[in-house]
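Researcher: Please predict.
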Amino acid sequence: MSEPFGALRAQLLDAAQAFAGGPGAVPDLLSGLVDDVDRALREELEIFPVCHHSPASALAMVRRLREKQPKVIYMELCEDLRPLLDELRNCRLPVALQAFASEIDGFPAEWAPLSVVAPITEASAEYQAIAYALDTPGVELVLVDRSTDHVFQWEPRDQPEPENVEPEPENVEPEKVEPEAAAPEEGEEAALHGDAVGIEIGDLRPGFAELEAYLLHHGKVRHWSEWWDQYVEQPLADADYATYRQVMVLIGSLFRRLRPDAGDRTRARDEDRERYMWTRMREHLATSGADPEQCLYICGAFHAASRVEQFGLRAEVTEFEISPRTATRWQYGLIPSSHSAIEAQFGLASGSVSIAAATWTKAVTRGGLTPFQLDGQKGTRKRSRRKRELGTPAPREPVADRLSGFLARPPALDALDEAELLGWCVDIVRLARRNGYLASTADAIAVFETSILLAGMRGRARPTPYDFQDAAITCIEKDAVPGRCDVRRLCEILLGGDRVGEVGYDALPPLARDVLDRLKPLGLDLEKRTIQRALLDLDARPELVPCSDLLWVLRRLLPSDAVRPIMGSRRLGERSIQESWDLAIGRHQRSIVELGYEGVTLEQVLERRLRRAVWAPKATAAQALAAVEDSILYLGSRRFTDELGTRAVELLAAERTVDDAPEVLRRIRRLLTHYRATEPELPEWCQSFVTAGYAHYCTLLPTAFVDEETGVRQVAAMLGFLFGMESLALSFGCDHAQLELAVQQSHPEAPAKVALLWAAKSQLGLMPMSELRSKCDELLGNPLVVPSFPQYMSGFVQALEPAPALAPFMVEVLSKAFARLPDTVLLPWLPKLITTLRDQAHELVPVLVREAGRTFPATLAAVDSWVPPWTSKPRPPSSPASIQVAGPATDLLASHPAACDAVAGLFGYEAEWRPAVEPTGGPGMREVTALMTDHPETARALTAVLRL
């Protein structure tokens, strides 16, 4: 039996026997708690147990560091993050240490990118130790926890992505989600850490819900953060160091022993971490020769109660194999953090970190302590830059039982601080009025009295911030929230606010500094978190053109709300004269820092991303064309653009589906137009793309027509590519027979594809217009086909992509349907027609509407006498005078007889001009003779084309 805790052990065993009525698990549990405390306190290397973001831990750390003055500090933090600690003096806390890897080697590819963050706040024990070690000569700070590479090495491989799993802080069961964390705060501050895995020093929390619910119920609190503040933080704030250590180890041992069996995998990982840390400390002591009496080991209270065989410097078992790191290349940096980001990631109650910071500030002032802080750090008081020197350390006190007195003594009730509570009540009413609440002095009095009442009901003489918050919500919150913040959020702002950190210029990676330097001509302080408006007159101030180019690249790489254009655009063939931007670069420091992990300049990062995208295993030709367009817009490198274009040709030739055909058609059209307008000839990759695409789509066309999974839009885009690029493809050596054979080999069954095939044949001259018209008339006359006629109409509308000359025919078919179908058929048919056109051809419907506007009369009075052009039948061709060929084609040919003669000769006719028998287009107009008389359908087709 351990001598210092013998009395406590006997007392606990007697209580367990009386409570349980005999031997069982409870006596063993209580005895084990005492053993864990005794073991941790007797260890030769002094163990300092902490809880993350705990003011009590920070206060105890300040007192112990000034008293012990250790020369070596071992800290539970990823060992490869050590170089980042020196940059904390260039930042405003809170910030987070980050390790980032975008290109991974040794992990599943779907895990990329990998990110680990470790938040640091001023009111934390780890920051106090870091500030002491970095600014005190002769003190060495050693991080001993597993590296960030091992964090993911030890992740179970059966999980798809570790970033999408609920982040696991130190010693938290993944199956357990805190009630207050079920709805984390929404906002940009709460998302500063993104999907990174969080690392903190020491998290203490019950391992199963029953114990936590029991503690919350009997403690008369709402959530775990309030229970911890009331029953651990407040009693330990003024406790001596020995009491603090014993209580923290006791709590860590309790939660460790009460962990449910479901946490076997988590327990094994935690124990491996403890073996890892003790192995690293032994290695450092062996190589440095440091005296363990002058060292301090800072770890979570959970790990202080460790029972692994490697625990302690005198452990009998010291072997532990540490696996080598993978070939993943990790990048390190500092990113801004915030109280709400820490709360959201680690499942803490909203406002708990802000309340802890306010508690820390008040305790430091009340206790007269001088906390440690890094010299020259932003957001701290200016102090003397004289380096601290080590004095004579206090001798280590013998282990004595402090738990018996602490556990037996009732909690001290703090006296009511009326001045503090009155200040809170007055300030919350003032803040509520600013945010639209109809609060008054009466509400302040009600909040004051309700706070005291709630504290009394909960067994507290002094209202806590949580009591005050509940009282304010009860007395001020009405039916609705008039502004952006409710009363709960206003209380958090009042009691401490959501402090947001900032990474200083000197601590930024080269890319981020380069961005700020290149945007200096704008004359804005881009490190501020406010949204700033930048006005760029590019004609009057040409020196701002590089800033504009950089802003567009940032727009491409950063989140949409970081750099937002108000006026101006960047597309192929466009140049903005003036631009206006809303810039929130200071709010997105994290994103810019992570860009710095990928390259030295933004252009380098964009080039690497585009190259990686087009060479990805699942890359498509459409994505490659998009990369080509981005390269032209943002990089201006002809060599790199040609490289991406060549890759696009390879991807198009390798594709076995036509799902991206519409996007391919749209992008290649835009790129061809750009090159024709800016360069004397097309690049070689464009020529290769046209020829490869012509052959590729001709090959796949028959299969696409009959494939049920290939939509009408995709087939229409294929035909649009083939018909639209045909002249260009033929000039590069393609054969028109490929297209004719592909169309003739197509035999679709779906109505929309059948209509699309008819239109393609008509465009190729394989189906005369009269035959196409008769087929449509048959469809309208067959009552069995009428219900599916909207599908045919959808195919015809989609055919406007490859054959825009069919627009008059589409108007004709649709007009016939409205004229011939009875109401019993037409009325149920109309909704289906509208929905079909909206879903399958919404961008082509305006073409149809414009053509209808040209066909139908413009006035209501002309409708009664209007005769549809498709209803008038031509006279026999033997009587030239009876041919009705008036219209734009007649006018054009009559006014240019030489051109008409040339066209007639081209087709093998001998042109002969005859005198007009009866002018049909107006007095003095010459009629078209032999050619137009013999071929009236050609004249009408030409008329339809000219109407476009």
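Model: The CA atoms of residues 838 and 845 lie 8 Å apart.
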